[in-house]
Amino acid sequence: MIGASAGLGRALAGVLAEAGHQLVITSRDVTDLDATAADLNLRTDGRVTAVPIDLRDFDPVEYRSRAIAELGGLDALFVTAGYSTQDDRGQVPDDLLQGIVGSNFTGVISLINAFLGDLRSNRAHLVATGSVAAVRARGSNSVYGASKHGLEFYCEAVRHHLSDTQSTVCLYRLGYVKTNLNFGQNLMFSAMEPAAAARQMVKGLGRRQGIVFLPKWWRLVGLALKLVPWPLYRRLDF
């Protein structure tokens, strides 16, 4: 479970632990990660181990070895890590750009790549989170949207690579989910509770779905955005 110290990742860890699953949870926020693991071990029958890493700078092979040693094998890999900021608009400082791309794309695919052998040899499942920001480019969240668009491409490639196995790959194009990142913002659409999103993702585990909008009605929003002519689209500010 990558990105498990807050928001959707923490909600997913809770749903899985409550169902009795053994977990390795990961985040760069050591304090929140340790607290999450301690809470889940206290409240559930699942065994939860916290392994902190920073996707912007880590050894994926070492992480994979430690996770497999803790779990004894791999049934599912959930990658919910994501980093966005309101400063991602127009020209951004290079260190911020690298941080966004590292957290959302390069670090994520390095980690998935380390587990590809396990996904091929076992009936295991890869679940990743994308964003509706990747549906169509816009001036705000430009680097974030580009990194999530790249993640979609990579996950489809992994899905093709694993198509002759029993393993599955699913990427959720998330609409607004209630997190600290959007707290207090005036959002265009209602935000989904992390626990509700987590339950739907766990319910869909093992289905050969590919890319899925969550909530599902965001599919209509995405289609509408793609159909807006450029002369009108360029005037939109959202």
Give structural attributes.
238 residues; alpha/beta; Rossmann fold; 4-stranded parallel sheet; globular
Structure, described:
This protein has 238 residues and is α/β, with parallel strands linked by helices. It has one domain (7-233): Rossmann fold. 46% of the residues lie in helices and 12% in strands. It has 9 helices and 6 strands; from the N terminus they run αβαβαβααβαβαβαα. The protein has helices spanning 7-18, 30-43, 60-71, 94-114, 116-121, 142-161, 194-203, 218-227, 230-233; strands at 23-25, 48-50, 76-79, 125-131, 168-174, 210-214. It has a 4-stranded parallel beta sheet with strand order 3-4-5-6, with helices on one face. Helix 1 (7-18) crosses helix 7 (194-203), helix 3 (60-71) packs across helix 4 (94-114) and helix 4 runs parallel beside helix 6. The protein is globular and about 55 Å long. The mean pLDDT is 91.
- Quick one: overall form? globular
> Low-confidence spans: pLDDT under 50, at least 5 residues?
none
Q: Name the structural class.
A: alpha/beta
Can you tell me the CATH topology? Rossmann fold
State the domain count: 1
Provide the helix percentage.
Answer: 40-55%
- CATH-derived architecture: 3-Layer(aba) Sandwich
Radius of gyration over all CA atoms, rounded: 18 Å
| Average pLDDT level | 91
Largest sheet: 4 strands, parallel
Proportion in β-strands: 5-15%
Order of helices and strands: HEHEHEHHEHEHEHH
Instruction: Return the CATH class.
Output: Alpha Beta
| Order of adjacent strands in the largest pleated sheet | 3-4-5-6
CATH homologous superfamily name? NAD(P)-binding Rossmann-like Domain
Count up the helices. 9
Distance between the termini: 31 Å
Give the number of DSSP strands: 6
